């Protein structure tokens, strides 16, 4: 009998607990039904967060693209300035080297001219032949030394007159001349050569023949 009484009491307690739980669940459902805005507000941030992240990523990407374009423009300007600097430096180096060679070589030209006169004016006798040959050998060595420094001698006899590299000391007219032509060289000229460019160091002094006016 005691066991039956205890069983009834436990059953009664369980029913009361189930009733309370049912009432609590009903209240929660009613609260949600009465406050739909609060429920919606609670769930809204979950949908707004991805949109905010996407906007932020778009802004960062745009800023990165602008920075890349700025860096590319800066690099292009720096490269152009460097190329101009290299070009100016090469031109300045060529000019400085040309002036240095001209200053150095000009001191040797008069002695070379004198040796050439000796070889040209000495009579061709047996006694003087060894001396003249020796002078000729010295001149060849001097020409070789000059050529190693890109300095070349030129004798323009028979060529067209070039006022940039020649100086006409006298002239004559004749029907045999179709253009101004060098007919005699009083003094050979010298020029300095850098790659394909030629820079006169001393003009050739010449006599020219001109067609009749």
UniProtKB/TrEMBL annotation:
Chain positions covered by the region annotation Disordered: 1-69
Stretches with biased composition (Low complexity): 36-55
GO molecular function: adenyl-nucleotide exchange factor activity; protein homodimerization activity; protein-folding chaperone binding; unfolded protein binding
UniProt keyword annotation of GTP-binding present: no
UniProt-annotated location(s): Cytoplasm
Domain of life: Bacteria
Keywords: Chaperone, Cytoplasm, Stress response
One GO process term, biological-process aspect: protein folding
Annotated GO CC locations: cytoplasm
Compositional bias of kind Basic and acidic residues: 10-19
Matching HAMAP family: GrpE
Subunit structure: Homodimer.
Task of the protein: Participates actively in the response to hyperosmotic and heat shock by preventing the aggregation of stress-denatured proteins, in association with DnaK and GrpE. It is the nucleotide exchange factor for DnaK and may function as a thermosensor. Unfolded proteins bind initially to DnaJ; upon interaction with the DnaJ-bound protein, DnaK hydrolyzes its bound ATP, resulting in the formation of a stable complex. GrpE releases ADP from DnaK; ATP binding to DnaK triggers the release of the substrate protein, thus completing the reaction cycle.
Similarity comment: family membership: Belongs to the GrpE family.
Protein's UniProt name: Protein GrpE
Gene responsible for this protein: grpE
């Amino acid at each position: 009998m005691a066991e039956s009484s205890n069983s009834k009491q436990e059953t009664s307690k369980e029913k009361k607990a189930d009733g309370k739980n049912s009432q609590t669940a009903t209240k929660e459902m009613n609260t949600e039904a009465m406050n739909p805005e609060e429920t919606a507000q609670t769930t809204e941030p979950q949908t707004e967060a991805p949109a905010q992240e996407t906007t932020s990523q778009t802004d960062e990407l745009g800023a990165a693209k602008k920075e890349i374009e700025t860096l590319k423009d800066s690099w292009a300007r720096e490269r152009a300035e460097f190329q101009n600097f290299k070009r100016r430096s090469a031109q300045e180096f060529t000019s400085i080297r040309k002036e240095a060679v001209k200053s150095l070589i000009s001191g040797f030209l008069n002695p070379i001219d004198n040796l050439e006169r000796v070889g040209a004016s000495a009579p061709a006798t047996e006694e003087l032949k060894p001396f003249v040959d020796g002078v000729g050998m010295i001149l060849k060595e001097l020409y070789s030394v000059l050529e190693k420094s890109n300095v070349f001698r030129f004798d323009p006899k028979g060529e067209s007159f070039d006022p940039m590299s020649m100086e006409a000391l006298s002239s004559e007219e004749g029907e045999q001349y179709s253009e101004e032509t060098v007919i005699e060289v009083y003094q050979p000229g010298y020029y300095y050569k850098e790659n394909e460019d030629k820079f006169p160091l001393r003009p050739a002094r010449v006599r020219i023949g001109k067609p009749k006016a």
